[in-house]
Every structure is written in C-alpha cells, then in structure tokens.
Design goal:
The protein is α/β, with parallel strands linked by helices. It folds into 2 domains: 268 residues, Aldehyde Dehydrogenase, Chain A, domain 1 (3-Layer(aba) Sandwich); 182 residues, Aldehyde Dehydrogenase, Chain A, domain 2 (3-Layer(aba) Sandwich). The chain is 38% helix and 21% strand. It has 15 helices and 22 strands. The strands form 6 sheets. Strands 15-16-17-14-13-19-20 form a 7-stranded mixed sheet, with helices on both faces. Helix 2 runs antiparallel to helix 4, helix 3 crosses helix 4 and helix 9 crosses helix 10. The chain starts with a strand and ends in a 13-residue tail after the last strand. Bound molecules: 2-aminohexanedioic acid. The site of 2-aminohexanedioic acid has 9 residues, from loops. 2-aminohexanedioic acid binds next to loops. Keywords: Oxidoreductase. It is an enzyme of class 1 (oxidoreductase). One of its GO terms (molecular function) is aldehyde dehydrogenase (NAD+) activity. Pfam families: Aldedh.
Length: 490
C-alpha cells in the first residue's frame, strides 16, 4: 500500500508520531493509500520552515516566481487524464467532472502565473508638487490554507497558486478525505522548481493540524473553504491574533424558473446543478423556486429526466452520479430526507441509500410541496436532494430565494429581461446566473458569497491577489523640503 508523507522544508517526511490514516475510495470502499497524520510538532516545523523561506521567496521577482507556476501548469496539463482518474478513485466524482476539476487547477495555475507580470497597484497625483503617490502589493507572510474534499485539486489551486505568485510561503492542509490530489499538486510544484520551505503540506485532522494553523501566531492569514460551523470558529479564533481570514462556506442556492422560461433548458440546468457532483458543491442547486403556472409541468419533466440518471462508479463513462464522499455524509443526507418527510414535504423521487452497491450511494431525490421555512429548504444538505418551492411571481420568487442565511450562487430562467435584471439587482448572492445553472464558475472572475457564506473576501479573479496580499501606500517626496499635506495647499 502506498504511503503518503508530509512535505516540510522541501523534504517528504514521516509524521513525528508515526501515525497514519486511511484514504478510501467511496465507490468501492477499497483502501487506496495510507496518509501520514501530522501533529502539533509537525505543524510547528512546517511553520518554521515557511518563516525561514519567506525572505528569499518574497524577494524573488514575481515574473520569476511565475516561471515555476507556468511549468507546473504545463505538468498538470500533461498529467490531466491520470490525475482525473486518481481523483475519481479518491473522491468519487464522475470522470468528466474530475477532468473539469483538474482543468480548473490548470486554468488557475496559468492565470496566477500571468499575474506575476501584473500584481497591480495604482498611481495617483499628489496634492503637493514634487511628490509621487502609489500603492504596491506586498505578500502577507506565512499563510495557512485549509481546503475541502469536494474539489480536490481545483480549490487547492485557487488558494496555492495566487498565494505563491504573491510571494507568500504556505502551510497547506488538504481535506483528510481527499489528500492525494493535493499531494500530487505539491509534487508537481516541487518538480517545477519551487524552493524548499515555500510550500509545506501537513495532512491530518482539523482538530490538531487545522487548529494549529489557526492558532500559530507566525501564520498571518488563513484561507478556508468548508462548513459554516468551522468557518465561524476560525473567524473567532483568528481574530485574537488579528489574522486576516478569508472564508468560503455553505450555500443553499436557488434556481428560479419563471412562467416564460424555456422549461427544457431549465431542466438541463436543474439536473446539472442539483445532481452534478452528487450535489456536493457549495454552488449546488438545492432549491428550485418555480412559478406556480409551470410548476406541475416542470416537476413532471424533472422526474422523468432524473429517473434516467445512472448512479454508480464514476470511472465508468456512462455514470451520471457518483458516490457520496463518506458514510457520515451519507447518513446526514438520509437524515435530511427524514426531516423533509416529517416536515410535510412530498417526496416524489428517490430518498434512499442505494444498498446493493458496496460504496456510499444515494438516490437522486426530489421533494415538492416544500415551504420556504422548512429545514430542507434552509439548511445545506450537500447531497443529491432538491426541493421544489412554489412562487406567485418574480417578487415572491426573489423573496423566497433570499429567505436563507446563505448567499453564494443563484440562477434565474426567464425570457423576460425585466425578470433577469430584477434577479441581478435583488437576489442576495455573490453569483447570479441568467438562463444557466448555479454551477460553472470560471477562474478569472471573483468567486464567493454574501451573508453567512463568507466574510466579504472573494477567491479567484483579480480578487485572488487581494486575498493574498497587503496593500502598501507609498508617498515619494522628491521636493527636498518639508511639505505638509492638507496644510501647504495654497
Ligand atoms: C464549490 O462548490 O465548492 O462553479 C466550488 C462551480 C465550480 C466551483 C465550485 N467551478 O461549481
């Protein structure tokens, strides 16, 4: 059985406790690797290495840092198929989606590398003569990255690549359900020429490794994608040391379908948004808010289409829906189906754990007669469960869309421009799609949400650079005399 070690100060090392944990294929329950489990001491070593590496790395010109990222991007491209297969085995998502996940990492690597020749600040006139004003971007320092299992290489790349190009040194803790793709990413960056100590990988538990990352005072920023509960805890703890925190948390993303919508197009979007990645995306469409006039027809067609989905091992090309990541997620989904039934929602399709398969499979599930305040319409389920809610008109639909604590993605299907613009203006979300599903964010645009989805930061796009830099304002006075702003203005 292959063992996967920690990567500290440019070396692959065993965990100091000698302990390991299992990495399991969720479709077959086969063991695919033994992962070294870091403890506090390992994190401390990693942080010290990152601190030592910071001066040299942050002083390396960004275009030179970029060369390493460009090389890594090309290596990711060369290994795309192999990495995608590995991801399907480790995480379960169907192969074509795994290819998309690796592609997202490739795109981010190229994009961040390109930023190496920008890292833009601004220049502006001074109110005084012979004085020059500008802003420059500086790296933050040692940065901690904590990534989720649902995008095993895309989300690590969203964080690692911009953080590196900006000149930070990193402590990176991938999700314990899917560490192998992160390990491969680190190996690629190492092979591409990243100096030792710049990127340190510590696999292990949230309560030890994650907690150390949040509490170590040498770490100046933490970037986390995961649950609302953990995000709130991180924000509270990190505030004590005034760490910069960026959070990407849950979603309860709506698709509004108006009475003038192209229903077949809407159904394509609902099926993709609700059941793609087995519903395990922060951006998954878990609520469909349908105009009452078209709801019956939409429901009928949606059931027909969903019945055709094939659930199974994602390595088989004809599989549409792969397994759920682990048993506790599987049980959580089953629990929510029970809650929905007890609340009085009508289960019209699915609702069960699929038994004869060895892995963690759940039937694509549709509830109707869901009222906006039910728990299944409020809480993030993170599984293949979608709830249909009836709306009277556009204002009612938007009101329902906004009646949750999250605000990540959203979508509207309508042929009417007024409805589309109302949705853009009024839906409380970081992302709104018009006549497209809630998923499919591209890496060169800001990604993130409002309300309980985050704390105001955005990943990807030019905002990725904001996430991983500090701004310095520079006043360069070449007048050779004392000049006083606000005072010497006549
Ligand atoms: C997530 O769901 O955690 O837009 C990220 C999308 C992907 C990223 C999703 N590009 O669904």
């Amino acid at each position: 059985m292959q063992e996967y070690k920690l990567f500290i100060n440019g070396e692959w090392v065993e965990s100091s406790s000698g302990e390991m944990f299992d990495d399991i294929n969720p479709a077959t329950l086969e063991l695919i690797g033994k992962i070294h489990k870091a403890n506090e001491e390992d994190v401390k070593n990693a942080v010290d290495a990152a601190e030592d590496a910071f001066d040299t790395w942050s002083s390396t010109p960004a275009p030179r840092r970029a060369k390493i990222l460009f090389r890594a991007a090309r290596m990711l491209e060369d290994r795309k198929e192999e990495l995608s297969r590995l991801m399907t085995m480790e995480m379960g998502k169907v192969l074509k989606e795994a290819r998309g996940d690796v592609q997202e990492a490739i795109d981010m690597a190229y994009y961040a590398a390109g930023e190496g020749r920008r890292l833009l600040g601004e220049t502006t006139p001074s109110e005084l003569a012979d004085k020059f004003c500008m802003t420059v971007r500086r790296p933050i320092g040692v940065v901690g990255l904590i990534t989720p299992w649902n995008f095993p290489i895309a989300i690590p790349a969203w964080k690692v690549m911009p953080a590196l190009i900006a000149g930070n040194t990193l402590i990176f803790k991938p999700a314990s359900d899917t560490p192998i793709l992160s390990i491969e990413l680190v190996k690629i960056l190492q092979e591409a020429g990243l100096p030792g100590g710049v990127l340190n990988l510590v696999t292990g538990e949230g309560k030890t490794v994650g907690s150390q990352i949040v509490h170590n005072r040498k770490i100046r920023a933490v970037s986390f994608t995961g649950s609302l509960e953990t995000g709130k805890w991180i924000l509270g703890e990190a505030a004590r040391d005034m760490k910069k925190v960026s959070l990407e948390l849950g979603g309860k993303n709506p698709i509004i379908v108006m009475d003038d919508a192209d229903l077949d197009l809407a159904i394509d979007g609902i099926v993709w948004g609700a059941f793609g990645t087995t519903g395990q995306r922060c951006t998954a469409a878990s609520r469909v808010i349908a105009h009452y006039k078209i709801l019956p027809e939409l429901l009928k067609k949606l059931i027909e289409r969903t019945k055709k989905l094939k659930t199974g091992n994602g390595l088989l090309e004809n599989t549409d829906v792969g397994p759920v990541i682990n048993n506790s997620q599987l049980q959580k989904i089953a629990k929510y189906v029970d809650i929905g039934k007890k609340e009085g929602a009508k289960l019209v399709l699915g609702g069960n754990i699929i038994k004869p398969l060895p892995g963690y499979f759940f039937e694509p599930t549709i509830f109707t007669d869901v009222s906006p305040d039910m728990r299944i319409a409020q809480e993030e389920i993170f599984g293949p469960v979608v709830s249909l809610i009836k709306a009277q008109d556009i204002d009612d639909a938007i009101h329902i869309a906004n009646s949750v604590e999250y605000g990540l993605s959203s979508s509207i299907y309508s042929a009417n421009l007024k409805n589309a613009f109302k949705a853009i203006e009024k839906i409380e979300a970081g992302i709104t799609y018009i006549n497209a599903s809630t998923i499919g964010a591209e890496i060169h645009l800001p990604f993130g949400g409002i309300k309980s989805t985050g704390n105001g930061t955005r990943e990807a796009g030019t905002t990725a650079i904001e996430e991983f830099t500090e701004l310095k304002t520079v006043y360069f006075d070449y007048s050779g005399k004392l000049q006083k702003a606000q005072i010497d203005i006549e």
